Structures are given as C-alpha cells and as structure tokens.
C-alpha cells in the first residue's frame, strides 16, 4: 500500500462523532486544528521511527478520541491526581531494529494515556512486561513510567489505535483512520521484523490489512485464536512473517483465569524463536 498517498487523504466519518473535518494522520494542520502538528502529510517520507513517533504524538485526526484522551487527562483518577497525564497519542515503544512486534488494541485511559508509554502503569502491562522479562524480551519486569529504565530486547510494542478510546472500544472508522501510522511503522520495521504477537481479536483484525504492503494475507483471512500460528509469505521478495495469537493481557482476562502469565510466556517464547532471537534471556538487540 502507498502509505504516503493514504496518509494524505481526508476521510469522511472518521470515528464516532468524527465525521466532517476529521483529518487522517499526517494530514497537516496545527495543534488544535484537527491535523498532524508538523504539517507533514507524507508518511512515506518519514525516515525512521523516532520521527514517526514524534509525529504520532501530535496527531489529532479523530475528534472523539482527542476529546476523550484530553478529558481523561484533565479529570484524572484520584490516585494519580498529582501527576501530569500524557493525554496524547501513545507511539510504539522499542527499537527500530526489532525482530518481534507485540500488537495490542489501544492505550489505556489511566495507563499509557497517563504515562505516555505503551502498557505502562496499568494492570495489563504488569502481566505483559512480567512475561516479556521472563522470556528475555525486556530487561526488567516492571513498567511504571517513561523513565523507569525499561528496555525491550529485540522487540517493539505498538497498537493499531494510538489514542485511548472510551470503554476501550475504538470504532472501525477510528481504527481505519489510524492505520497509516501502523503501516508506516511496519514498513520501517520491515528489514528486521520476522514475527508478531497479536493480543486479542481486535488487534488481529486490525493488523491484517496493515500487513499487505509486505506480506500476503490469505483469503479467507486467518482467524484469531489464542495459540494460533500463521506464516505469511512475503509479497515484496523479503522474508516471511509469523503471526501468533494471544488473548489480550487485560485485567478481565487475567482475573478470570482465561489468561495466565505462563500462557503469555509460552506464546512469546514461540514467537521469539520464530523471530530468530536468541534463546537466552537478554539476547537480541536493545530496544
Ligand atoms: S487514534 Fe490514531 S489517527 Fe486517531 S487521533 Fe489518535 S493517533 Fe491520530
């Protein structure tokens, strides 16, 4: 897919309440004006993940999500009343040479939307980072703030929707509006990326269309399941990509026992092997 062309378009009906005037990522404009603050517009020209992450952080393309993330940041949860919330889109976390990607759903209102880093400061992150540390994909099991010293090892964590949505439910239009960010992220990771762990059915369904620039997604599309493993051949002449399905690490799934840390570790270990990362904890390049 031509990321630059897609990123430059304007889409009607972007998000619930996000119809007229909603601009897509990179569509240009000023802060508060409904577009990306840097006025870029051509995501295909973004040279690397640091620049992409910077642009993501300023995106205002979905009016409903912009209003929600900022309202949450203003009102705050009582326990975090003395903290400055991030209140912006949360970019991916991890190095540009990642061989393994973990794809979730969207930032949590009082987790990533508060701390500014994926799965940081919430119950989901406690499970995910504990598992990643256990299998050697993170240097520590805790994730509490952007300056807590956490580093990913050969991995990057991202999401198809980069703003916290009400009730953790982005609309299909918001998902589609955010897709160019994910597509460009995948293109920049393409030289090294070999495996993906997808957390939950929403992430699975959202990721598949974003993969088609580099890999072939069969029809009918493979279905999400915990433990699913699907190898996608390359469509660009490069190496294949292996998808792994894992239940989302949400509090609901872990508190009900549907998902345990051991189950997450098992999926991550299989994906790590497919990614060609070393079996020893700490192997892989720092993220
Ligand atoms: S969800 Fe994505 S496209 Fe929508 S405002 Fe946030 S970063 Fe921009």
Q: What does this entry show, briefly?
A:
With 287 residues, the protein is α/β, with parallel strands linked by helices.
Topology of this structure?
Layout: H1 3-7, H2 49-56, H3 63-75, E1 93-94, E2 100-103, H4 112-115, H5 123-134, E3 155-158, H6 172-189, E4 195-199, H7 201-210, E5 229-232, E6 241-246, H8 251-255, H9 261-274
Parallel strand pairs: 2-3, 2-4, 4-6
Antiparallel strand pairs: 1-3, 5-6
Helix pairs in contact: 5-9
Query: How far apart are the termini?
Result: 27 Å
Number of helices: 9
Average pLDDT score: 87
**Tell me about the biggest sheet?**
6 strands, mixed
Principal-axes geometry comes out as globular
What topology, given as strand order, has the largest sheet? 1-3-2-4-6-5
Q: What is the strand tally?
A: 6
CATH-wise, what's the superfamily?
Uracil-DNA glycosylase-like domain
- The CATH architecture assignment turns out to be 3-Layer(aba) Sandwich
**What sequence of helices (H) and strands (E) makes up the elements?**
HHHEEHHEHEHEEHH
Description:
The protein has helices at residues 3-7, 49-56, 63-75, 112-115, 123-134, 172-189, 201-210, 251-255, 261-274, and strands at residues 93-94, 100-103, 155-158, 195-199, 229-232, 241-246. The protein has 287 residues and is of the alpha/beta class. It has one domain: Uracil-DNA Glycosylase, subunit E (3-Layer(aba) Sandwich). The protein is globular, with a radius of gyration of 18 Å.
Task: Name some characteristics of this structure.
binds iron/sulfur cluster; iron-sulfur; disordered N terminus; Uracil-DNA Glycosylase, subunit E; hydrolase; DNA repair; alpha/beta; 31% helix; six-stranded mixed sheet; 4 iron, 4 sulfur cluster binding; 287 residues; disordered C terminus; 9 helices; Uracil-DNA_glycosylase-like_sf
């Amino acid at each position: 897919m031509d990321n630059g062309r897609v990123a430059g378009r304007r889409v009607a009906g972007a998000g619930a309440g996000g119809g007229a005037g909603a601009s897509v990522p990179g569509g240009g404009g000023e802060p508060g004006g409904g577009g990306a603050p840097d006025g870029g517009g051509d995501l295909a020209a973004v040279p690397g993940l640091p620049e992409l992450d910077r642009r993501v952080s300023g995106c205002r393309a979905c009016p409903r999500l912009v209003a929600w993330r900022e309202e949450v940041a203003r009102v705050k949860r009582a326990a975090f009343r003395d903290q400055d919330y991030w209140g912006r889109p949360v970019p991916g976390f991890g190095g540009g040479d990642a061989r393994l990607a973990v794809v979730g759903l969207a930032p949590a209102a009082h987790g990533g939307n508060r701390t500014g880093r994926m799965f940081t400061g919430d119950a989901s992150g406690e499970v995910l980072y504990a598992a990643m540390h256990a299998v050697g994909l993170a240097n520590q099991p805790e994730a509490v703030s952007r300056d807590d010293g956490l580093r990913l090892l050969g991995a990057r964590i991202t999401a198809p929707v980069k703003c916290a949505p009400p009730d953790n439910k982005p609309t299909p239009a918001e998902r589609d509006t955010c897709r160019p960010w994910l597509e460009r992220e995948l293109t920049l990771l393409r030289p090294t990326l070999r495996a993906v762990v997808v957390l939950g059915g929403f992430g699975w369904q959202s990721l598949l269309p974003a993969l088609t620039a580099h890999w072939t997604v069969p029809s009918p599309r493979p279905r999400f399941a915990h433990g699913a493993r699907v190898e996608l051949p390359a469509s660009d002449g490069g190496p294949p990509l292996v998808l792994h399905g894992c239940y989302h690490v949400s509090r609901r799934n872990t508190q009900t026992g549907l998902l345990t840390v051991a189950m997450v570790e098992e999926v991550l270990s299989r994906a790590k092997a497919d990614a060609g990362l070393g079996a020893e904890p700490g192997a892989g390049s720092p993220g």
